[in-house]
Amino acid sequence: MPIADLPLWAEIAVTFFLVVGGLFGLVGSFGLLKLPDPMTRLHAPTKATTLGVGGVLIASMIYIFAAEGRVSMHELLITLFLVITSPITALFIAKVHIHMREKPETLPEPRDASGWASFTADGPARGVRDRQPVEPGAPDKTA
Amino acid sequence: MLSRFLPHPLLSLTLVATWLLLVNSLKLNSIVFAVILGLVIPMLTRAYWPDMPRLRSPLRAIEYTFVVLYDIVKANIDVALIVVFKPARDIRPAWICVPLDVRSPEAITALASTITLTPGTVSCDLSADGRAILVHALHAPDPDAIRDEIKSRYERRLKEIFE
Question: Where in the sequence is the signal peptide annotated (chain A) (predicted)?
Fold first, then answer.
């Protein structure tokens, strides 16, 4: 696709958002290198991608609007899919970390001493809404 | 009758809108296919989502979206500054237990996703009785302040939206 001639305001705006997005992407990757352990490292990319990718998407919307005169909606959808999926990948990584590196003693105690779901035999999978509160010292708390 | 064919009207509406955005056109055939998807997918998946969540105030949901968007931008800058300028030995990561007042699974899911999306905190686990979320914070000199902010800024709003 040939690069269209953009009006000046659009060039400035597209450049600005591309640079901002690139900067946050760079910081996120740098955080991966710098931070000391898996849990803190998890913070850098999950965060940097929200603004890093967001900046590139805004730049793309402005470019298409200025070059082709239409509003492109795909960027909004990408945002929607990212917002839905990125917490889930972060949760999976955190869960793996909890299973492999943490013990109940190294985490803060939840209210009612029912234990965290990762360490109990049957987590909250059967439905939070109809679950009875677990008595303190209930037998399904495993170390 | 209506609930039989439209177990989740909001989900159907979202699916129609998503499909139309995906094909990026408003031609008749796209609309027909979008409506088919919006009818069939909720019927096929209703077994996995038996309860109908009540969205008590859609206006507040929109307000919540903007609060979260603003926080994502603000906290992204905070985290970037921590990552770039703070020496690794000065970063104080912490596990934080956030007790929950919201009960509905949809509200808890939304809260957990919000915590992860706002930089600096990741929600990691749910307690076995579903009454507390385990949160990991990148830099938390004062863990109680973060817990209180999550409860007052996000959970209070979600409670108004869902319950």
Answer: none
Contact by Cβ (8 Å): B132, B126: yes
Mean pLDDT per 10-residue run, chain B (163 residues)? 71 88 85 90 83 76 89 85 84 88 86 86 85 88 86 88 80
pTM of the model: 0.79
Confidence (pLDDT) at A29: 86
Asked whether the beta carbons of B88 and A37 are under 8 A apart, the reply is no
Segments of chain B assigned to CATH 3.30.70: 68-162
B92: which 2 tokens? 């104080």
How do strand B121-126 and strand B94-99 relate by DSSP bridges? unpaired
Domain B68-162 CATH assignment equals 3.30.70: yes
Closest chain A residue to B143, measured at CA: A108
CA dist B61 and B157 (Å) reads 8
Phi, psi of A140 (to 5 degrees): -85, 15
Percent of chain A with pLDDT over 90: 10
Window 92-151 of B, Cβ < 8 Å to A? 93, 95-97, 99, 103-105, 108, 112-113, 116-117, 119-120, 122-132, 134, 136, 138
For an interface test with B, give the residue of A49, A81, A100, A116 to mutate (most B CBs within 10 A): A116
Find the closest chain B residue to A27 by CA distance: B80
Report the distance separating Cα B9 and Cα B42, nearest Å: 9
Max intra-chain CA distance, chain A:
70
DSSP state of B128: T
Q: Can you tell me the distance from the alpha carbon of A101 to that of B34, in angstroms, rounded to the nearest whole number? A: 46
Q: Band the pLDDT of A4: cuts 50, 70, 90.
A: low
Which chain A residue has the Cα nearest residue B133? A110
Q: What is the ipTM of this complex?
A: 0.79
